[in-house]
Amino acid sequence: MTTNKARPRGRPRGFDPDQAVATAQRLFHARGYDAVSVADLTEALGINPPSFYAAFGSKAGLYARAVGRYANAGAIPLPELLCPNRPVAESLAAVLEAAARIYAANPDAAGCLVLEGTRCNDPAARETARASNDAAADTIRRFIAARHPEEAERLTDYMNTTMAGLSAKARDGYSLDRLLATARLASQAIAQALPASASR
Amino acid sequence: MTTNKARPRGRPRGFDPDQAVATAQRLFHARGYDAVSVADLTEALGINPPSFYAAFGSKAGLYARAVGRYANAGAIPLPELLCPNRPVAESLAAVLEAAARIYAANPDAAGCLVLEGTRCNDPAARETARASNDAAADTIRRFIAARHPEEAERLTDYMNTTMAGLSAKARDGYSLDRLLATARLASQAIAQALPASASR
DNA sequence: GGCATTTTGTATCAATGACTACAAATAAAG
DNA sequence: CTTTATTTGTAGTCATTGATACAAAATGCC
Fold first, then answer.
1. Domain identity same for A87 and A147
2. Nearest nt (C1') to A17 (CA)?
3. Residue A188 within a domain
């Protein structure tokens, strides 16, 4: 596992890039992309700018790594929530509830790293976040379309919009209880649009 | 109307502050607070920095003026939508529909100036936006509480969250149709929570 | 005309942003 | 030991940020 390859050649790295990505993920999530400077990052990582740029290319490059890591550590686990055996409305409700819980779980990193990233002022980072968000939206859309094709677009938009709102309000300091109440209320609209009878 | 007061004393202004606020409002709404620099503003206004700071104190000061103007020109007209003669659920649905329409009305200034402002990186501007948003939330909360006190908190949170989502997605380029569909779906949850029978 | 008052234009300021040039350091390969 | 390859630390670069110092210009008041 830890024996990957023989040492490359030159001087060995003085830091662990994967751990650096994890640290960067925390920082970006806590303060937002724009509010984290390269100086903040190099200080938090205990390295100097040249090491930073040699390893990650740019601030946006590191952000892309952090977003990639986020999918496996911190984001909503869509694959396990969107279960083909469960009614669609129930699955979507589970996603919204998970969003509320995850966005409020850590007050120092509230909301969704990706959704908040789509609002930043760096074009490269914004595109990274947008691509990740689009991928998640596609997953939801395909899940709905499999059983309710005529409702897929509308409900996907509704899910995306609701999650964006939940992320924003989580960053405004809304408590878990308030976010959960909103998520559940939002789920009722979905249940109404997808009568249980049409579960398959 | 235009004859306000006798000329003050010294050298007359070379620009109209009210028109400058209107221009600034457009710029802030189009690009967001952080992405508009003082240099952008002074250029758009055709003035130099000293005139800018003499008139508005700071970038955040001008933003406060722009937000104040927004309430009367661009924002959702809550006072006329929250009509005490109409059922609460119907009024709230009208607010969400207005949000969708207004947020998508101008593609060059999508979303809500205030809601997006609450996400900026300048503490002073953020506090200005937050105060304005809180005032709007209070208006909604009192309107609901007048007839459905036990639902006021939950529905106000739901409204705020939904509008934040609509604003974010409007900035993502969602069309009016998509935003309207989401707003209407969201309204169904409200209608369900406030049975028509309890209209008074 | 002369004085007080206010705004304007020129020319900055200090701080911070992302990013790099360059040589010393550290390793494997020959 | 020499060569080659890679990373490191020092010390910057250059553009941009929000905000100002200062004197000239333009008005009302006396």
1. yes
2. D7
3. yes
